[in-house]
Design brief:
Layout (H helix, E strand, L loop, with lengths): L1 H7 L11 H8 L2 H7 L13 H14 L3 E3 L7 H17 L6 H5 L4 H5 L2 H6 L2 E5 L4 E5 L2 H9 L26 H14 L2 H25 L1 E2 L2 H18 L19 H14 L1 H11 L7 H29 L8 H8 L8 H31 L2 H15 L9 H4 L4 H13 L7 E2 L5 E5 L2 E5 L4 E4 L1 H6 L1 H4 L12 E2 L9 E2 L20 H18 E5 L7 H14 L1 E3 L3 E3 L7 E5 L8
Parallel strand pairs: 1-2, 3-8
Antiparallel strand pairs: 2-3, 4-14, 5-8, 6-7, 9-10, 11-14, 12-13
Bound molecules: protoporphyrin IX containing FE (HEM).
Length: 586
């Protein structure tokens, strides 16, 4: 029974994992999830007994690494709903409250803790839970090794089963099948596609900044960043282009036009993918489910129908010797028409996972950056200096991806610095089915089978050992070195292997890394070339106080939902102004 429970449980440590908090909130009660979806493998009855803690503790002790014990399984869905919301704050108030339990026994503690746990316990320690052992790592060498050896330290694939909504995909595949998925999908993530990402991002960002400037103050930066990100995915994924301010609406289930519903369908699916992962496509078809689930079901059907339409059209175009359009979907179809290609459902599965993995990752990163830059006018000037130097007076539609993008190193440095501190995607690896040796600081430890290995990327990204005394400060300049005063001589700093892993590393790293970099650089260049951003000053504040308030909001009102994100960005409206009309206040 214990083994069964363990293999069926779902880690909270991956972005693609199951964020039960939201699911439960969406449905009203966790118990409901269990009764609605026994097949989705959430076993509340596996809320392990204390005896498992004792057994696991004995196993952990033998490994020879520092150990901490937490009494409640972090994978218990009920606990995940209530941990930080209800119980942890209550316990913190008790005289004996603060301790291992309140510090570590909640989802997302790593962001609040930064590198401190590793400063106290060393580069690696074990968290004993009533479920699995969780080994937390903050050693660049060990992390580089684990991420390199995908066969020895595979991704715990059971987590990613949920993303099989439309078919097998990169995230759910393993071994030879994964090789095939990766080989074919990497043909689609090519330089032509990056060029499309570049030009569409410029188009979207120009409309966005014009809109924000016209508004005076805007509280919707984070939502607007999601719109930008979705529109870029639509363009790069399907060659479909939308104006920035297209409205979000609920899906019209009566219309027969599949293409007309495509964007709304995708938006509804991405907004509700957690619900979809938990319930699965079979359950959301039930007519007795609430309106939200029915709407989601309609969106799934519409999105699949759209993909089928594009698939059939592309096959026909191929048979008529017509050239392929330049987008991810058509590239996948063309690359799969031979003998060893992806099946139709695998193509749909991958297209969905690109959208899922590429949407909020970039959107949250853009939002974090805008807020951070609003607190730091000197940093905006520093980026502007590069933009003026590289792009001159030319209008944005003349900026060329191939020549301009590689020169915008300071702009890229802003991305690296944002995701060093606010890395959106947690990573989880596993020892798989057998014990594995793990070498840390020259000592080798035997880690038991079915142990979770958690690259503590927040710790390794903020540890002063690797980033200096100002490791917690947002300072994009740390990424740029120069031996002269010339911008052209500036060189991008390569971090020590294993010390910077926001896109993971090794064979199973993020295939959308370049996509997200191009998107970010094009967006920031467009926003900052003629504009700057500052916080709206509230009554009784001056600008300095407003900036400190915003920085505090970013640093303290951020946490892990599905990904790392600001909880209430709307509480700090932003003001965008044209550079030419007013000088920046430093
Ligand atoms: C700032 C932006 C992004 C960050 C920080 C990021 C980060 C990551 C990380 C850390 C992983 C590995 C997860 C793990 O091992 O558990 C991953 C996987 C993945 N990412 Fe990204 N990502 C970003 C943007 C994108 C974009 C734009 C796309 C596609 C358009 C994308 C597509 C994928 C896919 C398909 C996988 C699964 C790969 C596999 O299993 O082989 N990502 N990403």
């Amino acid at each position: 029974m214990d083994r069964e429970c363990r293999s069926n449980s779902v880690s909270s440590q991956s972005a693609l994992s199951l964020p039960k908090t939201r699911v439960s909130a969406a449905l009203g009660a966790t118990a409901e999830i269990v009764s609605l979806s026994p097949a989705r493998r959430i076993h509340i009855e596996c809320a392990h007994a204390p005896s498992h803690v004792a057994q696991n503790y004995l196993v952990a002790r033998k490994i020879g690494l520092p150990v901490r014990v937490i009494p409640i399984d972090p994978e218990n869905p009920l606990w995940m709903v209530l941990d930080k919301r209800v119980f942890i704050p209550l316990f913190e108030k008790l005289p004996f409250g603060p301790g291992t339990f309140t510090r570590f026994n909640w989802r997302g503690w790593e962001f609040a803790d930064k590198y401190r746990a590793h400063e106290e316990m060393g580069d690696v320690f074990i968290m004993v839970t009533p479920g699995k052992l969780w080994v937390h790592l903050c050693s660049p060498d060990a992390l580089a090794e684990i991420l390199k050896k995908d066969k020895d330290f595979p991704r715990p694939l059971e987590i990613f089963e949920m993303t099989k909504v439309f078919g097998d995909n990169l995230s759910t595949a393993d071994g030879k099948s994964w090789n095939k998925h990766r080989k074919i999908t990497s043909l689609a993530f090519n330089e032509h596609n990056n060029e499309l990402v570049w030009s569409e991002t410029i188009r979207q960002s120009r409309s966005a900044v014009n809109y924000w400037t016209s508004k005076g103050a805007t509280a919707s930066i984070a939502d607007d960043a999601r719109t930008i990100s979705l529109h870029i995915l639509s363009a790069a994924g399907f060659g479909k282009f939308y104006p920035f301010q297209a409205s979000r609406g609920s899906i019209d289930t009566t219309t027969t036009s599949v293409a007309a519903n495509y964007k709304e369908s995708l938006q509804i699916i991405l907004d509700n993918c957690v619900l979809l992962f938990v319930l699965g496509t079979a359950v959301i078809q039930k007519p007795w489910l609430p309106k939200k689930a029915r709407e989601l079901n309609a969106a799934v059907h519409s999105f699949r129908a759209y993909m089928t339409e594009v698939y059939e059209a592309e096959k026909k175009a191929f048979s008529e010797d017509k050239p392929a359009a330049n987008n991810l979907m058509t590239q996948l179809v063309r690359a799969s028409l031979g003998d060893d290609g992806l099946s139709e459902t695998e193509i749909y599965g991958n297209i969905f996972v690109f959208n899922f993995a590429g949407h909020d990752t970039t959107a949250h990163t853009l939002a974090f950056t805008i807020y951070l830059l609003a607190t730091d006018p000197a940093m905006q000037d520093w980026v502007f200096e590069e933009l003026e130097h590289v792009l001159g007076e030319r209008p944005a539609d003349e900026w060329a991806y191939t020549t301009e993008y590689p020169k915008l190193k300071r702009t890229l440095a802003v991305l690296y610095e944002t995701i060093r501190l606010y890395s959106p995607v947690p990573i989880a690896k596993s020892t798989g089915n057998s014990d594995k040796p793990l070498t840390v600081d020259g000592k080798t430890y035997i880690i038991p089978a079915k142990t979770l290995l958690i690259p503590n990327h927040i710790a390794v990204h903020t540890h002063p050992k690797y980033w200096g005394e100002d490791s917690l400060k947002f300072n994009p300049k740390r990424w740029i070195q120069s031996t002269s005063a010339r911008i052209d001589d500036e060189v991008f700093v390569t971090p020590r292997k294993g010390s910077f892993i926001p896109w993971s590393d090794g064979v199973r790293n993020c295939p959308g890394k370049k996509f997200s970099q191009v998107e970010f650089v094009a967006c920031m260049a467009t926003l900052l070339k003629e504009h700057y951003v500052e916080p709206k000053v509230f009554d009784g504040e001056d600008m300095g106080q407003a900036r400190r308030r915003v920085l505090k909001l970013v640093e303290e009102d951020t946490g892990q939902v599905l990904l790392l994100q600001m909880f209430h960005p709307e509480r700090a409206p932003m003001v965008w102004k044209r550079r030419s009309s007013e000088k920046m206040v430093g």
